[in-house]
Every structure is written in C-alpha cells, then in structure tokens.
Amino acid sequence: MKAWRGAVCSGDAVEEKKMVKSELAVAFPPTFSVSEIKNKQRRHFMFMKLKQEKRKQKMQLRKKRRKEREALGDKAPPKEVPKTIENQRVYDETTVDPEDEEIAFDEGTDEFSAYFNGLTNPKVLITTSDRPRGRTVRFCEQLATVIPNAHVYYRRGLALKRIIPQCVARNFTYLMVINEDRQVPNGMVLCHLPNGPTAHFKVSSVRLRKEMKRRGKNPTEHYPEVILNNFTTRLGHTIGRLFAALFPQEPHFVGRQVATFHNQRDFIFFRFHRYIFKNEKKVGIQELGPRFTLKLRSLQKGTFDSKYGEYEWVMKRHEMEACRRKFQL
C-alpha cells in the first residue's frame, strides 16, 4: 500500500510539473534564432525557409492592398512613397537651376561652348596603357563603334604629354585613355582638347558584346541620341557636358540608337540601346553593348598634367563618403 501511494504521489507531482511547464511556455514563448543552429546545412535551409515565408507574406499583403484599392476606386488613398537613399538625399548648395543667369553665362564661356555653338565637330582618339591585353583592346574597339568619329591607336610607349600636342595638331577634340589592371579595364582618362578639362574615372563592371545575353545586332554608323540623366550639381553638370561633347549634336533618328549616361548615387552607368516600334503604342528596346560603370576620381583644369596640374575636384573617400545620403554629382 505504501509503495502504491508513493507511486500515486510521484505521478501527481509529474503532472503538476508538466502543467507548470505548459503555463510557462504559454506565458513566455522561447525565442528562436537561426544563428543558434550549429549545423551549417540545416542553418542555411532554415534561413532560406524563413526568407521564403517572409516573401509570401509580403506578396499576400500586396495583393490584399491591391484588392482594397480596386474596391475603393477613386476614393482610395494615395500610394505611399517608399523611403530610399536617393529621395532622402541631402540638399547640395551647388544644385544647378537651368534658369539661373550665372549658369547660362558660364555655359556660354566654358571649354565646351564651341561645341554647343556648332563651331567644332567631335573627333575622338582612343588609346590604352602600355602593352594592353586582348580584353582591353576589344573594349576600345567596341567603344569606337559607339562613339562616332572615334579612332583607335596603340600607345607604343609614348607619354600623354607628347600625345596631346599631336592630337591638337590633327584636330582631335578628345583623348580617351583606357587603363587596365590584371588584364581587365579599370580606369579611364577623358581629356577635352585643346583646353581641357581632364576627368579621371574608375571603370568597373565591363561587359563586352559577346558576354551579354539577348543583345541586338552590332550598331550601325548612324549618330546616336544621347541621354544624360540625374546630373544635378555644378560638378555633375560639367561631367554631363563632358560626355555630351563626345557625340555629334545632330543624331540620325533613322538608326534608332541611344547612348545613355545614368547617374545614380555618384555611379555613372553607361548603356547603349536600339529601340524598335512594335506598334503605335508599344516600343521595345534591345541592348547593343558594351556596358560599363564609371566612378569619378578627379577633375583637372586644362589638359592632362599629373605633376603640375590644378585640380578642381578630387575624390576623398573618408570625408565625402561619411554620409551615405550626400552625393557629389
């Protein structure tokens, strides 16, 4: 009898402990973190599963909001604008106002005024650093098919200070130098002739035509249209005019080719497209290539002079990139 009673008491105690544990579990749910899983494969699987569930929840919420907007019709509230780094950009004092008289005067007297007044036609010399590799050479050749009146010449060990007078004597308006590192193009020096300025860019994400999927046929000899997007500050305005002066002012609309320089967070994305009219309302585009990304490193007054040149602007990373919402172009 005593043993049986002890068993009954021990069973009651176990049930009481289970009830207490269940109450605690309801009151204080255990926190779960994927990082606590020690098995790497299991941890990655659980992370992807949680990510997929969040994506499903977002899609369901989006569909629900869309149905609510359709049901309300004209009474639906305006769509919320998502917060991005660009629309929260810190205001820059040098932002260009197109109607400003001072800016109009500067444009009429700067180094590019002869081009925009129709007094000169672009003529570009494209060269490379010493002993270029095949990828850099192909990149220069494809740039020459994009930029009209562009000629590719090999460097042959000549210094830029000796090349510039020869370019001026032969009526070249631009000198473009493509530098490379480890057989990959990584820099561009763009010098406007005969009086400058000279810009130095970092080149990244270069994709040649053979490396692009679903590209169109090779570009024709028609002069392309030029789109300069989001160059808002005085520095960006100068860089935009520097790119615009590379191309003739009278594009051939028959060719339907467009060269785009799009500035986003001080990265300049270059794309070359051809647009196709499908019908009266729809237009399709196909990328022709090449594509690349530029990042301005410095802007120098006059022609290229690394030793005695006067710099208008130099990229200082630790000072200028301290605030993520402040942009220079």
From TrEMBL:
Gene3D superfamilies per record: Probable brix-domain ribosomal biogenesis protein
Name listed for the protein in its UniProt record: Ribosome production factor 1
Compartment(s): Nucleus, Nucleolus
Region Disordered, annotated ranges: 53-80
GO cellular component: nucleolus; preribosome, large subunit precursor
Function: May be required for ribosome biogenesis.
Predominant localisation class: nucleus
Regions that span the bilayer: none
Record bears the keyword rRNA processing: yes
Organism domain of life: Eukaryota
Pfam families per UniProt: Brix
Keywords: Ribosome biogenesis, rRNA processing
Gene Ontology MF terms in the entry: rRNA primary transcript binding
InterPro entries tied to this protein: Brix, IMP4/RPF1
GO BP term, example: maturation of LSU-rRNA
Ranges of compositional bias, category Basic and acidic residues: 68-80
Domain Brix: 122-305
Basic residues bias spans: 53-67
